[in-house]
Specification:
The protein has 237 residues and is an alpha+beta fold. The protein has six helices and eight strands. The strands form two sheets. A five-stranded antiparallel β-sheet has the order 1-2-3-4-5, with helices on both faces. Strands 6-8-7 form a three-stranded antiparallel β-sheet. A hairpin with a 3-residue loop joins strand 1 (2-5) and strand 2. The longest helix is centred in the C-terminal third of the chain and has 25 residues, at 212-236.
């Protein structure tokens, strides 16, 4: 069942026949680096069944993202109720096959989901919960007009993962993402904190016996920290 269409994409309900396509995404180690590694085939199947139940119980869920040009499922994007440390929120989530990264597909699909939430579901606010090291997903949330509201720790697979709570409200009207101003002291404190974290990550990487999955995750974190440091330096000038 087709739910949404954009210029390049179709968002439709998933079926059990999409198991292979979703597996290419969630069972890929590199794609799932921010989740501390790939899902198993069993986890992929369980999540697909969860979405199918969601269609029946809520009338929506994560949908298959189909590239119109080829008819191939290239991603998963949609709306789902998610629990934070404080409340239950309607989240726009997105995961894409890494062969199709850097084409703007995630933002295109996420924006369509936001409009669906406001226009069809009649909600006043939608969210995206993004791990603090996942810079690409943060950029998608920002392109979707979202602002960081707060931070919390999500416990997943035995690990406390800091997450940013992004959201956009129906009444928000903004032609471009709002510019956030920071004081010199705030920038200096953020810079010190990031340098401290960077130093810890580099020490972790010095361990020759570090498992490859943890090394990959730490290297990604180092890259994200370096980007954040660069942005802070730019803000100072």
């Amino acid at each position: 069942m087709i739910i949404l269409e954009t210029g390049r994409l179709i968002l439709r309900e998933m079926t059990i026949d999409d198991l292979s396509a979703t597996g290419e995404i969630v069972c890929d180690e590199q794609t799932m680096w921010a989740w501390n590694g790939a899902w198993s085939e069993e986890e992929n199947l369980a999540n697909l069944r969860k979405q199918l139940r969601g269609y029946l119980e809520d009338g929506f869920g994560r949908w298959a993202v189909v590239l119109k040009e080829t008819g191939k499922v290239i991603g998963i994007c949609g709306l789902q109720w998610c629990d934070t440390d404080r409340d239950r929120v309607l989240e726009i989530g997105y995961l894409f096959n890494r062969a199709y990264w850097h084409n703007g597909y995630a933002a295109e699909a996420a924006i369509a989901c936001k409009r669906y939430a406001f226009d069809v579901l009649k909600v006043d606010e939608v969210f995206s919960l993004v791990r603090d090291i996942n810079i690409p997903s943060m950029n998608v949330a920002i392109r979707n007009g979202m602002t960081v509201r707060r931070q919390y720790a999500k416990h997943y697979k035995g690990v406390d993962m800091p997450h940013y709570v992004f959201s956009v409200r129906k009444g928000d009207v903004c032609a471009s993402p709002p510019k956030v101003s920071f004081t010199t002291g705030e920038l200096a404190e953020a810079h010190r904190s990031l340098l401290s974290t960077l130093n810890k990550c580099e020490k972790v990487l010095d361990n020759e016996n570090l498992p490859q999955s943890q090394r990959t995750l730490t290297e990604r974190r180092v890259a994200a920290i370096n980007i954040a440091l660069m942005l802070i330096d730019k803000e100072k000038t």
